[in-house]
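Entry:
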Amino acid sequence: MPFVIEKYLIEKKQRLFLYLINELGYTQKEAQRLIAKGRVLQDGKVIDKASEEVEGEIEFIYFKAISKGLLPIYIEKEFVVYDKPSGVLIHPQNRHTEYSLIDELKSQYGNDANITHRIDQETSGLVLCATNKKSERDIKIMFQERDMKKTYLAMVHGHFEKEQIVEAPLLRKEDESAIVRMVVKVDPKGKPSKTFFRPLKYFPELDMTLVECKPHTGRQHQIRVHLFHVKHPIVGDPIYGQKEEDIVRFLDKELSVKQRMKLSGCRRLLLHANELEFELYNKVYNIKSSFEFEKESLKLLFM
């Protein structure tokens, strides 16, 4: 479990945040943030005031990274790149999440290392991670300024016949049902979003196309929504292209693998982050995934 509970005895009354700094090695900012998040308890009650004076036994809940042996495929002093398998979360969803990519990063490179961007749990492929606070800031600025070129591969339904650029604004409303909050939609009130698509190979026996996808903006679910918008949903997508009742069943984990395959065509989302190209500290990088997406996708489809 990445989150563990440890008991500590504070023998002399002192302010809680000072104990976390002096005895457990946290910075003042980290200590105050952990206390505000409710990570310290005494007699079963949360202590959420950093300045509160505490004495006696406390319980401290903290993240303990545990490696499962997933190693980065590219290593530099300032950053590393992992080729994330489908099904692995980027960050824990809650305290009960058993494993995520941040486990590997922090167990291998320490607490100052951090993931700089996200891909969905079922999306496989490249994830760029900073090994220190400075490179984390610089890489995140690079993403914000759109200096990162990302290339994805997707297996989509139907015959995607020619290259096209999809410019369709994307909106995620926060004031409606749980389903609407989860699902991003094309909407004139949404944020400008642009993706370039190029068909690579058509499989007539499956009526599916392998497509290269290059997002120019980085909206949530952008590639998935844009492909659905042009009537070529990604194979295995349990949300875009599905009926609302089936989306609910998937989110509630009530949809069996067999049912999902029947509805969407595959047991996983066939989307892969295949290539990253960027310049950092006066050096240009072009990093490609070692995962054979086409071969592995066909293997899943013919299982």
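Residues 3-63 form a domain with the Structural Genomics Hypothetical 15.5 Kd Protein In mrcA-pckA Intergenic Region; Chain A fold (CATH 3.10.290.10).
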